[in-house]
Amino acid sequence: MLTFAPRHTVGSFLLLVMCSTLFHPVENAALQTTGGENTLYDVTGIGGRPLMVKAYPAVENYQSDLFEVYAEPYTYDLRAQVAIAVLVGEEESEVKGEIMFIQQHPPIGPVLIRGNITGLPPGRHGFHIHQSGDLRQGCGKLGGHFNPYLLPHGAPTDPLRHAGDLGNVDAGDDGVAQIRIVDALTSLSGGPRGVVGRAVVVTTDADDLGRGGVADSVVDGQSGRALACGVIAYVR
């Protein structure tokens, strides 16, 4: 299991205040719903050790039940975490944006994703987290979608999906897309689902969510080339 050194960023109290002020009540309700799905806290393990468990239900003819189990002593910072990705346009693209990630209860709690992207052509555009965060060769050299469990591409609500599959963003006639997502699969505290250090990418075309019926559909949703990208980094 991949681990990262604990990050002592902004205090938990401040992050909880940020969550309550930055997110609409509807989003907070979604957080509570998503946070309660397939996550168990303070489960008693062998010797009375408290466990945190994140479960992934079986998918018929594809995978059995999967469980992530975290036991003391924890190698992850359990305090609330915040990260941000500053998107910069590829080559001549004027697309830019800032995307904030907040996880109140790492490593198994859901992640709140909110921000905006400007300069987009009107319409829908794929929005994903890619494997690599090395931008030295541009947005097109970041590897595939972040996919720690080697699953096919899908929609954010599909039982089988890449961890980096965040669906589409919708840009209005003014070229602005507002991002409001609650995601239960990614994490900010390292581990197999950790996204800090990886890159967010917005693409030229809409993501078909794996339903296009061709080979590329279950790889990248036929969402085209990258318009802009940015590395997900901890906020200090």
What is the CATH topology descriptor of the largest domain?
Immunoglobulin-like
Question: What count of helical segments does DSSP give?
Answer: 3
Label the overall shape.
Answer: globular
The pLDDT mean sits at 84
What's the order of the H and E elements?
HHEEEEEEEEEEHE
Q: Name the structural class.
A: mainly beta
Instruction: Provide the number of structural domains.
Output: 2
Total DSSP E strands: 11
| Percentage of residues in DSSP E strands | 25-35%
Helical content (DSSP H or I, runs of 4+): 10-25%
* CATH homology group of the largest domain: Superoxide dismutase, copper/zinc binding domain
Quaternary arrangement of the chains shown? single chain
- The Cα radius of gyration reads 18 Å
Instruction: Just give the CATH class of the largest domain.
Output: Mainly Beta
Order of neighbouring strands in the sheet with most strands: 8-7-10-11-4-5-6-9
| CATH architectural category of the largest domain | Sandwich
The low-pLDDT segments are 1-23, 25-35
Protein name: superoxide dismutase
Keywords: Antioxidant, Copper, Disulfide bond, Metal-binding, Oxidoreductase, Signal, Zinc
EC number: 1.15.1.1
Cofactor: Cu cation; Zn(2+)
